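Re: [help] complex structure
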Amino acid sequence: MARRNPMRDEIAIVGVGSTDFSRDAGGISAAKLGAQACIAAIQDAGIDKSEIDGVVGALEPGAPRANQMSSILGLNDITHHSSPMPVAVSALVDAMTAIFSGQCDTVLVYYAFTRAPWNSRSAAQDPFRSYLGGMMSGGLKAPPMPESIDPSAAYTAWAQRYIHEYDVPRETFGRVAMNMRANAARNPKAAMKTPLTMEAYLEARMIRDPLCMLDMDIPVDGADAFILTTTEKAKKLTPNPVVVHTATAGMVGRNDEDQLPSLERHGQHVVVEALKERSDVWIDDVDVFFPYDGFSIITLGWIENMGFAKRGQAGRWMLDHWDEDLGCVMIDGRVPMNPHGGSLSEGASRGTGHLREAVMQLRGDAGERQVHDAKTALIGCGGFFFNSQGAILKRL
Amino acid sequence: MSESVSDAELVERFPWVQITHDSKFHFRGWLDKQLLINRCADCGNWHHPPKPVCPVCWSENLVPTEVDGTGTIHLAMALHQGAPAPGVDYAKGPHPVVAVDLDGADGVRFSSTVIGLPPEEVVIGLPVELDWVERYGHPFPVFRKREA
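Output below.
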């Protein structure tokens, strides 16, 4: 069954801008990081700020909303603005639909990240971040109970279920972490570049058994921004623009973290079906693969649910496609997986790093990470519950 | 007992969770050491956490129904660090957290900890039963291993 996809290849990403990602950028606000990335993206696109009439900004703790960023950058005459829920593709889709429907022509999309008191010791010492603690508790007078299976704890619970159902060792998760770290070493923007061995992975501090600190994305200070416009307009800026072939969200009804029916039917499956049915290409056509890795179990899910590996076989599949020289997955000796290092090693960017690297690869601007003549990128963004998303990007 | 507890007092006694008009019955049940799970009086389906309408047939005719709390562990993990709570000391060892498939309430899981068992024995598939401990001065539902 084919689905409608009138936006196919009609929206282009014509600018990208990023700060470095670091575990401590020093005394710099999320607003400033965001502004730096936005200015870089506008300059990269080669447009004047007066051409921007849409602003889509991250709903991230401590980050400025779209109205605030418009004020910071002095963007006038904005006809579409929003602050969608993470992860990255939801902002992408919001900007695409706004352009395609005629609400605006050229959109600034940005995500800004700042380490928070609950996930960084040094951030907890920063008095200017103390208010974030109150945001986290949602106005409640006491912290949630340890037994509350919140979204992040839930990935650990389902990781144990994965181990139980498919009888896999912890090394399967470690292999995901090693892939990201080896790739991050080739990315100057990445927060974590020191090599990672399996021995070091297995000895890393356990946080929630069976997942250790290296299974969880690394909180960073940093920001990414993008400029989107019509493909028609993009062709006047560059001869071979990067276009969005298709992008989607995916969710099932019973998405409460501890009530999800099973690992065999959740948001990722809805995403995969929608992408396939709206697309001319699929995994055999992909030059670079971006599975989200906010938690290592999510990456295993994308590998299997997109059809690269059979259920429970992602670990075996990574070994079969492992490049010993590079220390990472090269699918069929050719296609890397998160060549920028992903959220586990570049930094926790809710998938904006994946999206940015996809654009860089398709433009041929990925430096020593460049995949030869990359034309198609596949992104599986987000996890199992409420934020599963996906996109296919192409070079025209 | 819980009948006499006002809404304001209920909120005061559970400072760590956002109680709503849809979930107030569930938490009142805790005060009486009753685990109440929503069941639809029209189609018979169960759901949790408490929702305003039945997700299957959209009936508002929902009945908080006591379950005996026996079940089987579906999800399990051991927290080496986590949110603070009375009686939880991560320095003494990891704190188990489980989601249990409840017997008699088809498709519903209830999440809590397991007491009286070393963390390494808290595994998926283990039969458990409900018990109650004291937390923040109110009864708190937990599980323990169910002996055959």
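The CA atoms of residues 19 and 289 of chain A lie 23 Å apart.
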